[in-house]
Design goal:
29% helix, 15% strand, 15 strands, Plavaka, single chain, C2H2-type domain-containing protein, 17 helices, globular, three-stranded antiparallel beta sheet, alpha+beta
């Protein structure tokens, strides 16, 4: 039997049979392996066509129409009079939504409206297909395309000399957040409403799933103006070795995302829910004391984070208008929900010394104490730094470090989170699953019983319960 030639629906390349097409599309590096997922997501974004569908009823107010069949009416659940659900397969039996409703305005923009508003759009369409006669013409055509997020660079001035200039490369994190919030692929994957979910209608046992179901999100929403949209900012950074034995190149990337994106979507690498917003400088300081070189590098990281995250802090205090994927405009506040980092980097960012908890005041000798230690709040750390500054000038590096060690601090004089509204180190530093979590254990310092482990650090916090005794 002769084989029927087939072609890939994504790239159009022809193969001898359907089996070869399937093998080609299953290769991770082919670029066509995500074609089906993209098609499904695009189909979920596009509005359903009702032109030739006899099953679609035009009038939703028709008394013969069952309103519970509409997802936006009851979200597919049969609710009781107390706000609970009668779905026996679901763990959630009752939900308390934040009392003040969310406000959205039909004056925003969508991805397609931005494209249609581009001044070069018609010219680019008229010139297709393009035939370039010179490299200059090609460059001119490329410059007329939409620019997207622009990179910036800045040389950071340091009080102590370095072996090479400290150059910070970064993009506006507020534009990154706006891009993620407006992305059409996240149309049905954004969680806007703070709520509390319970496993029984008596509301004795609370369930934590998405970030918006947590107590922290509820507290943040309570501090915002009426109708405001809470955007939980996720940051993640980790110093990474790029090359070894050939220059020892090191990068320190800073990623940004939204906790409002549903967990199942955010965890997929193909969703591109995290954007690279900065490359923090990694340079070597010239100082005779190795310990002081480390303090100078830590100060440099905090200084760069202060520069990069300045607009996010302003938006957290004053709010900013952003458009969701449907084109609705929201009054958004960008609060710090989580900072994902390994243990050494979390201690550095919390401004504590080695062998000290970044989320409590406990040191390594107290990690197994049979009681809960006091959380390391922003107010406590800043008060300790105020005492250290009264005893030594931050420019006197060694004297300042000696005084900071008395409080088990690492010598950083200005943490990046000190002026970020509602940013609490004891809450936004998420325990690292690789080093902190095993199958089941009791953490005396945090007083948590680990029942389930999420697929990433941000999800771990909401897969636990707190003991009542």
């Amino acid at each position: 039997m002769a084989l029927v030639p087939s072609h890939c629906p994504s790239c159009g390349k022809q193969f001898k049979d359907h089996t070869s097409v399937a093998r080609h599309m299953s290769q991770p590096r082919s670029g066509c392996n995500s074609w089906l997922d993209d098609l499904i997501q695009l189909n979920s974004i596009l509005p359903p066509s009702t032109e030739h569908d006899p099953m679609v009823v035009d009038d939703i107010n028709d008394p013969q129409v069952d309103a519970s069949s509409y997802d936006f009416w009851s979200q597919g659940e049969d609710l009781d009079s107390e706000g609970g659900t009668r779905d026996e397969d679901s763990e959630v039996k009752a939900t308390d939504y934040f009392p003040e409703p969310l406000l959205a305005f039909e004056e925003g923009y969508t991805f397609l409206s931005l494209f249609d508003a581009d001044k070069n759009r018609l010219e680019m369409i008229d010139d297709l297909p393009l035939s370039f006669h010179s490299a200059k013409e090609l460059r001119g055509r490329a410059e007329s395309l939409p620019s997207g997020l622009r990179w910036k660079s800045q040389v950071i001035q340091t009080l102590h000399p370095t072996k090479s200039p400290a150059v910070l490369y970064w993009r506006d994190p507020l534009e990154c957040i706006a891009t993620i919030f407006n992305h059409p692929l996240f149309c049905n994957c954004l969680d806007y409403t703070s709520r509390k979910e319970y496993s029984t209608t008596q509301r004795h046992s609370q369930i934590y799933t998405e970030w918006m179901t947590g107590d922290h999100a509820w507290e943040m929403q309570s501090a915002l103006p009426r109708g405001a949209t809470l955007l939980g900012t996720i940051l993640s950074s980790d110093k990474t070795c790029i090359t070894a034995l050939s220059g020892d190149r090191v990068a320190h990337p800073l990623l940004i995302s939204l906790a409002n994106i549903y967990m199942t979507t955010r965890l997929k690498s193909s969703s591109n829910a995290f954007l690279l917003t900065a490359l923090l400088p990694v340079t070597k300081f010239v100082h005779k004391n190795k310990r002081m070189r480390g303090v100078l590098q830590d100060r440099l990281v905090h200084n760069c984070l202060n520069i990069v995250l300045e607009l996010l802090k302003l938006a957290a205090r004053n709010g900013v208008m952003m458009s969701d994927p449907m084109g609705r405009s929201h009054y958004c506040f960008t609060m710090l929900a989580s900072y994902i980092a390994d243990t050494p980097e979390a201690m550095m960012l919390a401004c504590v010394g080695g062998k000290t908890s970044p989320v409590t005041i406990a040191m390594y000798k107290q990690f197994r104490d049979p009681f809960q230690h006091e959380p390391r709040t922003r107010a406590k750390t800043l008060e300790q730094l105020k005492i250290v500054r009264s005893r030594a000038c931050p420019d006197d590096l060694e004297a300042f470090f000696r005084e900071a060690q008395k409080f088990r601090l690492n010598g950083v004089d200005e943490p990046f989170w000190w002026d970020w509204l509602l940013a609490e180190p004891s809450r936004f530093f998420t325990p690292e699953s690789l080093h902190h979590i095993h199958k089941e254990f009791w953490d005396h310092d945090a007083q948590w019983i680990i029942l389930a482990v999420g697929k990433s650090e941000i999800d771990f916090r909401f897969s636990i319960i707190q003991p009542t005794t």
